[in-house]
Amino acid sequence: MLxxxxxxxxxxxxxxxxQDYVAEYFGDMNMSxxxxxxxISGERYILxxxxxxxxxFFDIFRRLYSDEGADEGFRIAKxxxxxxxxxxxxxxxxxFHARMRLTDPVEKLSAGPIHFAYSGxxxxxxxxxxxxxxxxxxxxxxxxxxxxxxxxxxRSGRKSRGTACVMNAGYSSGWCEASFGIPxxxxxxxxxxxxxxxxxxxxxxxxRLEGHIQDYLTRAGNGRGRPTSYEIPAFLRGKEIEKARRxxxxxxxxxxxxxxETTGDWMWELxxxxxxxxxxxxxxxxxxxxxxxxxxxxFSSFMDPENSSRCSALLQETAAFEKPFSDAEFVxxxxxxxxxxxxxxxxxxxxxxxxxxxxxxxxxxxxxxKDAERRLAExxxxxxxxxxMDAVGRLAGGIAHDFNNLLMAMEGYxxxxxxxxxxxxxxxxxxxEIMKSAERAASLTHQLLAFSRRQILVPRRLNLNTVVRxxxxxxxxxxxEKIDIEFHLEPxxxxxxxDPGQLEQIILNLVINSRDAVSGSGKIxxxxxxxxxxxxxxxxxxxxxxxxxxxxxxRDTGTGMDAGVLSHLFEPFFTTKPRGKGTGLGLSMVYGIVxxxxxxxxxxxxxxxxxxxxIFFPLDGESAGGAEDFPSVPExxxxxxxxxxxxxxxxxxxxxxxxxxxxxxxxxxEAGNGEEALGLLAAPGRPSVQxxxxxxxxxxxxxxxxxxxxxxxxxEIKVVFMSGYSDDAxxxxxxxxxxxxxxxxxxxxxxxxxxxxxxxxxxxxxxR
Length: 768
Hints:
5-stranded mixed β-sheet; 19% strand
């Protein structure tokens, strides 16, 4: 049976258990007047008159603050009593928990109200509305029917100026805080010492207390027990804290020093010459010097040389014009030599002698904040660069799309005209130059598509070493005799998944760039290795997430690059080569291919120290087999007699493709879009069509929708797609599978005829 607490029925079992072992604890009491001791379970206690900690205490402060009014003395007495009781409650709880070997938070807390009653504070009556949960939802509503503080006021025949049971509130909240390990505070909302019906309390986390009080006021309405006023302990309010601290500083130099020495900021005092006359202990934590080592030395002597003159000038201005300063940023040197960013504020003052102008201030270590700001600025720069590269990539892809259509017509008609001319015709040379220029322009558009990541890749499981070895002889022929090229290939290199042709483009571009960067004799190293990345690897150009990678590196001993060049390295048309020696698309193409292959690229370089280009490709973990080879496809016949329907919205492209096919023996029908193509197929008497060659992007009905319609109505007709602007995402969105016959514009006559023949023969391969 509970006799030391009144509890809601759902809490009774745990409180009954607590009452048993608390009663056992207090049952072992030994009083020894000859020794002046009272011991309970081996722990020494003291007896204090209840009035001494209540009415008498308030009377003392009323007299001390009589010049400021009775209310001020009452307020300060309440604050001190609460703070003291809260701290005692925490320590008593920790001691009791340790002696009784309590580890469960619920058992720790349940012992509190029982201990409270046995130690003479008050009997506790807990409301069923309470929620004593070990989190931010903690809420306790309870009464103290016989609070020792309220009894002291009532027995004295006086009424309190407000709620008076502050030690009860402080002690109980301190015990509960120590039990659950969360900040808790309690306040009395009605008090018998003031004339209310009961001494009622609310306990909650500090951030929730006032909200719970307002909820209680709403529920209480105008009935009995509604508080006419309540007070939250002043230490919970930031402004009140600052007022109390300033008041304490004025009253006691000792308390001032205690406050100074517990803050995280470095506080100091200088004379008119900028020499330290006082330093708080925080200088040791911030700069590594003891306060004694700082005294007698100038502030500027601890500054980075670039900051010392500015610091001296600021302090002289403060001393001369009594002008305060705030948030001045300086870089100081730690005793160990590393740099510390400091934010400093100071105000002018008068020395104790009254003769010399001094400066008092604080310095705050903002090194972490400045590092965070620097990292944020770098991240923002990377984001802006990525956005710029993406915008340029979109523009490049759009330009390449239009150029590819024009170039296909130019190459096609020039080729047809060249084929019809006699070999003795003097104009053949002019046509051949036109063909060469068109081919170079087509190469540029392919580079633009690579940079914009809109070219079509055919990724395969392969070993980087195989690609490098296949190119080794060619690379050696490209390098000057004065330049040594070395190949350091890891024998156990693991396979990746990439387009072999595009990898060759990467290797070729990087080696040529290294060759051009080496003036006279030098060395180029091509290397591969397996690289496990366990934590994010961050560089200026990219960040590699954790994973397993195959690294490809091209390192040279060339002229190197400065930070300004590196920041623009991957931008299209940016080049450091002389006019006519480079287009500025090589590295931008490399960047696009790497990104489209899910890889990462870093470039490290310094003037006169060469350049190191590192590319990381994620390993291909789809199967345990080795990397596959990529043999060339054997040539097949390119002519035929079948009927082919060309669907293309660009008339010049459509016409030149039709010429290629007709001159190779095919019967050709032409349509400007998908709807027109379906109309031709549905026309009565039309010839049997074996294959449709269609552009992917067209008005009214594009190639993807046309293919779907053909599959439903004419499943026997085969389809070959072509486009001047596309990417794998477009094909996937259209529902195409790997191996779909596809031609990237500009399409040469041989490539077109070869793909058509393969598709008709049932050996269609992706010609991307």
